[in-house]
Amino acid sequence: SYDLPAFDAARPDAYWEAVRALYPLAPDLKYFNTGGLGPAASPVLARFDEVTRRLQSRVEHGHELLAGARATLARFLGADPAEISFVRNATEGNSVIAGGLKLSAGDEVIFESHAHPGGWYPWAQQHRLRGVVVKTFEPDPRDPAGNLARIRALCTARTRVVQVSHVTAPTGIVMPVDDIARFCRERGIWCHLDGAQSAGMIPFSLHAIGCDSFATSGHKWMGGPLETGVLYVRRDRLDEVAPVHVGSYSGELDEGNGDLRITGDALRYEYGTRTPAAPLGLAAAVELQERIGRERIAAHGRTLASRLAEQLAPLPGVEVLSPVAGPLAGAMVTFRTSVMPYDVLFKRLFYGNGFRCRPVSEEKLNAVRVSAHVFNTPAECDALIATTADILR
Predict the structure, then answer these.
(1) Exposed, middle or buried: residue 171 (CB in 10 Å: 0-12, 13-18, 19+)?
(2) CA-CA distance, 35 to 22, in Å (whole number)?
(3) Fewest C-beta in 10 Å: which of 9, 106, 247, 275?
(4) What would the pLDDT profile of 3-56 be if each residue is shown by its tens digit?
(5) What is the pTM of this model?
(6) CA gyration radius for the chain?
(7) How far apart are alpha carbons 78 and 191 in whole angstroms?
């Protein structure tokens, strides 16, 4: 159990300091890389430890415990429990979709050029194995409609899949996924979202978005244990995604004729023995977020990101690459400077001053990315800005 004070809009810093106290971060670490790996709070670690120790004491696998965690994640993501499967990370979920859809040589998949390797590589593999054609577009950081227009310009009669990062990893663009899903639905194109950067950063409902599938990692913005992830496949489209791996829990075997009857829900994508401690830890993580308030978390992240962007932009040679306001803006700020190489700036921030950000080499952006989440504070952001200014001077 843990206590949080009532939120007082007149004194928000006291509330966020209490949230910060739930995270056992090293005192000398100023952590701004949730987009890469998010820390787990003490209640999450306690749930993980308690479940592990309890099951080990009885030498049990505890698979029956997964149903409760599945219901919690379904509520959090705006889905039905039958549409939710536990995977190891977003990469595995993306791979299930890429490998499981019935695609042929010449069929086309479209995604943005800022896709993480965990979103890009599964399709590169399908190009190698099945001749699937990969087409990419540069994401528009200024206009939501511009992203849809770029997808529309690439579509042909052979387009079968559109995949977008719900929030792009290099620069934190919140993509207009509702409009993209609607566009795909009207044309019979499968719409898949890589939600590794969105789940836990911003509130949303998968049913409201209307996408066909969604994959996310639990170890980033949701603050779950390592090796946790969720794959969502819309109930009426489950049979269009063949399981890449099968085993116990994927279905039942007719021993008479050897036919495998795949289960009717998303449990088909889970197989074999696993520890329920990780999904239950993830459930504890999202319960903490629900207690804080998902809209409150999103507003806090956007406020800190805006504070960072506004004060970084005037520094010598600095260019902010992320949206800083409007519907495309989230809780990440990526910037670069002509004063020094991005990797040198990253190292001086981290090794000399304890600010853990992320270097961004993708698409030759040569920048530094700052993620702002529930355990980050305005004072910490101001310290990062001041330290960056000192380094650039």
Answers:
(1) buried
(2) 19
(3) 9
(4) 999 999 999 999 999 999 999 999 999 999 999 999 999 999 999 999 999 999
(5) 0.97
(6) 21
(7) 17
Instruction: Tell me the three state secondary structure of residue 216.
Output: strand
Half-sphere exposure of 54 (CA within 13 A, CB side): 11
How far apart (Å, rounded) are the C-alpha atoms in residues 127 and 105? 8
Whether 332 and 372 have beta carbons less than 8 Å apart is answered as yes
Does residue 74 contact residue 81 with C-beta atoms inside 8 Å?
yes
* Residue-level pLDDT at 351: 96
Which of 270, 286, 229, 283 minimizes the C-alpha distance to 61? 270
For residue 140 the two structure tokens come to 């528009």
What is the C-alpha to C-alpha distance for residues 106 and 118, in angstroms, rounded to an integer? 22
Q: Which two tokens stand for residue 268?
A: 């088909």
**321 vs 303: CA distance, rounded Å:** 17
Residue 317: predicted pLDDT: 97
| Cβ count near 59 (within 10 Å) | 6
Helix axes of 277-292 and 66-77: crossing angle, nearest 10 degrees: 40
Length of the chain: 393
d(CA 90, CA 389): 36
Tokens at 23, concatenated: 């995270």
Q: pLDDT tens, 218-276?
A: 999 999 999 999 999 999 999 999 998 998 888 998 888 889 999 999 999 999 998 99
Positive or negative: CA dihedral 24, 27, 30, 36: negative
The answer to whether the CB of 315 falls within 8 A of the CB of 301 is: no
* pLDDT < 50: residue spans in the chain: none
Strand partners, 358: 369
